[in-house]
Design goal:
five-stranded antiparallel beta sheet; elongated; 5 strands; disordered N terminus; alpha+beta; about 35% strand; Thiol Ester Dehydrase, Chain A; about 150 residues; about 20% helix
Length: about 150
């Protein structure tokens, strides 16, 4: 698994991490080998599994910046998927080594937007866009917490 992150972001504070992410979009690369269970009878990755790949890559991006979803949720902040899109260009198959390139594109008043690109070697297989919204523990939409906002 290869992860690329600005070394200035490795401080353990979620406040600092998200602020740095908003100031300069970050990206990571996560490698996943396609398992048999993720394919159909023809050995092609089932289309819904791309969203699992995207989730793994988002989790690794956050982890590479010094924080985990578990820690974020323990602080009372939750991020839920409100929009998920995937365009399929070519099929991924059993035992392919995939690279998922994930980029944090934007943080708004209530959301985070990610872009994902799935590659087999240099060949683009799929492109995804995921939007997460901030909620509290009851699921009520919340403004992006102050510690995520920057002085813009």
């Amino acid at each position: 698994m290869t992860v690329v992150c600005n070394p200035l972001v490795f401080r353990r504070s979620i406040f600092y991490t998200i602020r740095m992410l908003k100031q300069k979009p970050q990206s990571s690369e996560t490698q996943i080998r396609v398992r048999y269970v993720e394919t159909d009878q023809m050995g092609v990755v089932y289309h819904g599994n791309y969203f699992t790949f995207f989730e793994i890559a988002r989790t690794e991006l956050l982890r590479s910046c010094g924080y985990t979803y578990r820690e974020m949720e323990a602080s009372g902040v939750f991020a839920v998927v409100v929009k998920a899109e995937c365009s399929y260009h070519k099929a991924a198959k059993y035992d392919d080594l995939l690279t998922i390139k994930t980029t944090l594109k934007r943080i708004t008043r209530v959301k985070i937007e990610y872009e994902h690109q799935v590659y087999r070697d240099a060949e683009l297989l799929a492109t995804g866009h995921i939007t997460l919204a901030f909620v509290d523990s009851t699921g009520k939409i919340q403004l992006t917490p102050k510690w995520i906002q920057t002085d813009e």
